[in-house]
């Protein structure tokens, strides 16, 4: 089935008002049953990536990073088992894996003399058990497994073609 520009735009418009979660993807499938799951996922991913690219800079200002880090610390102090990072990412409309990266980088900067290398951070994101703080490791893990568009889990899935 060929997707028209009008159909694409109708689907994309629906995505503006929903968070980028698997539940939203299910609702999208219910709203557009004639479209395949793969088509909807593709549009979902494209539109979300456009959004992230548009808003990336505002999430990486020193003020934003410190604000997010402080909110993370306050949240885990109240309840370390709650999905603080995941909720923060959803609240500020940013990809959970990318929020986890921001907080992990800030955490490591505070605990080491030199800024951590990208390879160290990437390895910790791929395997959160390497993170020296158990609570942060759990928070990062929650973000990675709940992010349907970004992160090491998504990258791994994208490497394997579908049957």
UniProtKB/TrEMBL annotation:
GO CC annotation: cytoplasm; nucleus
GO term, biological process aspect, one: erythrocyte differentiation
Coiled-coil regions listed in the entry: none
Alphabetical UniProt keywords: Cytoplasm, Nucleus
Superkingdom of origin: Eukaryota
Main localization, broad class: cytoplasm
Compartment list: Cytoplasm; Nucleus
Protein name from the UniProt record: CDAN1-interacting nuclease 1
């Amino acid at each position: 089935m060929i997707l028209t520009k009008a159909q694409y735009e109708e689907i994309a418009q629906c995505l503006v008002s929903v968070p980028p979660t698997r539940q939203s993807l299910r609702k999208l499938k219910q709203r557009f049953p004639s479209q395949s799951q793969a088509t909807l996922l593709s549009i979902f991913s494209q539109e979300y990536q456009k959004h992230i690219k548009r808003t990336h800079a505002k999430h990486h200002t020193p003020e934003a990073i410190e604000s997010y880090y402080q909110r993370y610390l306050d949240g885990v102090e109240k309840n370390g088992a709650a999905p603080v990072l995941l909720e923060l990412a959803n609240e500020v409309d940013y990809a959970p894996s990318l929020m986890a990266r921001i907080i992990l980088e800030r955490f490591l900067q505070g605990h080491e003399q030199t800024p951590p290398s990208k390879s160290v951070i990437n390895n910790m994101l791929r395997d959160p058990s390497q993170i020296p703080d158990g609570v942060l490791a759990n928070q990062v893990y929650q973000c990675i497994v709940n992010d349907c568009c970004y992160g090491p889990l998504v990258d791994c899935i994208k490497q394997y073609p579908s049957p």
